[in-house]
Amino acid sequence: YMNGVPYAGQADAVLGMKIKGRKKRVLIDFKTGSEQEHHVIQVTAYKKLWNLIHPDEKVSAIGILYLKEAYRNKPNYKFKLVRPQIKRWNTVLELYLDKHSHNGVIRPRIKPKPREIFKLGE
Questions:
Q1: Could you give the CA distance from residue 44 to residue 46 in angstroms, rounded to a whole number?
Q2: What is the mean pLDDT of residues 64-93?
Q3: How many CA atoms lie within 13 A of 6 on its CB side?
């Protein structure tokens, strides 16, 4: 837990933008493929984490930049400013912790040890 936060993540960009004539610090996550409801929850989590780590440089808006498959050949994108969904994020986090923690401590995921002995066909 860093500063009491039981999750980590990294947004793709934090930059200054003018929104309705006012300069704001905006946290943006890039996505390929179609829009999904959970993207807003994810970028909400990033905003909470950023503002905790950077209290003097808080973000005041969040957005998602959707890139289509052909974006490398020609500009093909959609940018959306979204409203943080704090209540939904807190619910998702609570459910995750309920499933994956013990007394508030997240259980580590231990990967199986790779096999060292192989038997090739008989």
A1: 5
A2: 86
A3: 18
